[in-house]
Specification:
One of its GO terms (molecular function) is oxidoreductase activity, acting on paired donors, with incorporation or reduction of molecular oxygen. The protein is an alpha+beta fold. The protein folds into two domains: 268 residues, Alpha-Beta Complex (Naphthalene 1,2-dioxygenase Alpha Subunit, Chain A, domain 1), CATH 3.90.380.10; 101 residues, Rieske Iron-sulfur Protein (3-layer Sandwich), CATH 2.102.10. Helices cover 28% and strands 24% of the residues. It has ten helices and 20 strands. The strands form five sheets. The chain has a seven-stranded antiparallel sheet. A five-stranded antiparallel sheet has the order 6-3-4-5-10, with no helix packed on it. The two termini are 14 Å apart. The relative contact order is 0.19. Bound molecules: FE2/S2 (inorganic) cluster and fe (ii) ion. The site of FE2/S2 (inorganic) cluster has 9 residues, from loops. FE2/S2 (inorganic) cluster binds next to loops.
Length: 399
């Protein structure tokens, strides 16, 4: 099914109009919230189960496990997993745990391997998860080997991204989860033709929702980033679309200012905007003029005050870019360095302190404004997932 999406040209024109009127798209109401949701261990457990154990979230770009037997390991909120490219080109995910006595099977964050070999007593498993060898099996005793393969976690590759539902009992259907609009949007981007040029991982002493919120926020830019992003992007101007689960907004860059007085006519205005997509439950996808940036936020397996952020630059290959390999590497190194220093110097200190603040016994209630559109969607949808435990049977909510 083809969704009826507003053409990008019209959305950019609308962003310019909002800028001219010094306003932004707005939600219906101001909403209140309390500090407990960032510190409560019981709620954190419900989030792990009802959000990450129920719906698909992104773990990698396809190019990170490009070849058969390439794997990555990921600490998901409920399970430590291995994601591995199969011989037939498909992808599978497994709990990263030996079925003998529970040793951690694969320690490396990424690699390529023909089979997984347990460090404890050297049982081994094939990349499709089946139990390959029991050491000294003449003495071990007879077991039904088929039952003791690695525990499989639902995993699917779509739009050049690898998704999992962190729950062995669940099913996965990424298209149904994305819905017709976001599925069509992602299909149009050709992210599967790009490569993941750089990955940054950041373990922060901050709740994952505080982290996610900061990267859906068009309101803080000139205040928290006066000398970096604040010089480049307009603050608090968002041409926003709500798809009911996911959303996106266009924000004008300052370079668009030349068109404030003058009518741009048919001039393409694409170079003068950035576009932010929120993919429920835990990703921000930024469309830049020449590449995509993907930010994901995962809660710790226990502590509500810890999370891991991953930042990926997904870019045209060296060949498609027309650059020399040296120039290409230099470009993306430089890009990554700038992004990381903004994170470390400007966002993370504020967010760490927010987390500390949330531990105050008398924090009082707090507010999310009508102008904080994508944050409103994030809050609304997380609440829905938590309220509606029935979604826990997986990403089949549309079927
Ligand atoms: S725990 Fe893995 S072989 Fe014993
Ligand atoms: Fe920021």
């Amino acid at each position: 099914m083809t969704a009826s999406l507003t053409p990008r040209r019209d959305r950019i024109r609308r962003a310019l109009e909002l800028l001219r009127n010094e306003t932004t798209d707005q939600f219906d109401d101001v909403v209140g919230f309390t500090a407990h949701e960032f510190v409560d261990p019981e709620l954190a457990q419900r989030e792990r189960d009802l959000i990450f154990g129920s719906v698909p979230s992104i773990v990698a770009h396809s190019s990170e496990i490009a070849h058969p037997y390439d794997f990555i390991t990921v600490a998901m909120p409920r399970n430590n997993i291995i994601v591995v490219r199969q011989k037939d080109g498909g992808v599978k995910a497994f709990v990263n745990l030996c079925r003998h006595r529970g040793a951690l099977l694969e320690k490396e964050e990424k690699g390529r391997c023909r089979f997984f070999s347990c460090p404890y007593h050297r049982w081994s498993y094939d990349p499709d998860g089946s139990l390959r060898m029991i050491t000294r099996d003449n003495t071990f005793g007879t077991i039904e080997r088929k039952k003791y393969g690695l525990v499989e976690i639902p995993c699917e590759e779509r739009h050049g991204l690898v998704w999992v539902v962190d729950n062995a009992q669940a099913k996965i259907d990424v298209a149904a989860w994305l819905g017709p609009e976001m599925d069509e949007i992602l299909a149009g981007y050709g992210i599967d033709k790009l490569v993941c040029a750089r990955v940054g991982t950041f373990d922060e002493p901050t709740n994952w929702k505080i982290m996610q919120d900061a990267f859906l926020d068009g309101y803080h830019i000139q205040y928290a980033h006066p000398n970096t992003a604040g010089k480049v992007i307009h603050t608090n101007v968002m041409a926003f679309e709500d798809f009911g689960r996911h959303c996106r907004f266009i924000a004008p860059r300052k370079s668009i200012d030349r068109w404030l007085e003058e009518d741009p006519g048919d001039t393409p205005l694409d170079p003068y905007v950035t576009e932010t997509h929120f993919l429920l439950p835990n990703s921000t996808l930024l469309r830049q003029p020449d590449h995509f940036q993907l930010l994901t936020f995962r809660p710790d397996q226990r502590d509500p005050a810890k999370s891991r952020m991953e930042m990926r630059l997904m870019v045209p290959t060296v060949e498609d870019s027309g650059l020399t390999e040296e120039h290409w590497n230099h470009l993306w190194d430089k890009n990554m360095d700038i992004l990381i220093s903004v994170l470390h110097d400007e966002d993370f200190p504020i967010l760490r302190d927010s987390q500390r603040g949330m531990a105050s016994a008398d924090a009082g209630d707090m507010l999310l404004g009508r102008n904080e559109v994508a944050n409103q969607v994030f809050r609304r949808e997380i609440k829905k997932l938590l309220a509606d435990g029935s979604v826990a049977d997986g990403a089949t909510v549309n079927s």
